Amino acid sequence: MDEGEQLSIGELRKNTKTKIQSPDWTGKIQLQRHLLKELARQMNETKGSEVFASATMRWDEEEEEFTVSLLLEKTTRMSGKRKKRSTGKLTRIRRKSTFKGTIKVQRYLLKVFAEQMNEIEGDALRACIAGWQYGYGPTLHFVFELSPYYPSIAIRPEHGLKAWSF
Known about the structure:
Blueprint (H helix, E strand, L loop, with lengths): L7 E7 L10 E8 H14 L3 E11 L4 E8 L14 E6 L5 E9 H12 L5 E11 L6 E8 L18
Antiparallel strand pairs: 1-2, 1-4, 2-7, 3-4, 3-6, 5-6, 5-8, 7-8
Helix pairs in contact: 1-2
């Protein structure tokens, strides 16, 4: 990370589930312009449909929430199995309150983020994150999904792009 660049940081709070498939955790993340630009550059270089970013989650006992941060991965990987969502899996590491993993970012999502970034001033774009918790104890891990933030249903696109709005 270059000097002066900020991390893309967000928080996940426990969600009151209304349906079985509802996320266990929901929140927002501030995506930094330099991260989105670099992800787009990597995607164009590899001509792939997805790129990966490193993700870290840490439990904040005081706030009772997870702090989530995204960084560029050192290497770009191509996935043979393609999904339509920008998802990631985080697994517990040595300390029991920290999880690490990767998140896959789809081309269509980067395009939406680029369009939104062009409409705002500043270097950070708000996006939504939703997390599902699996397992317990040493096998605990999280799967989470990144989606655009739309402040109201009126401006959400009609093309079926799913977004968790909070």
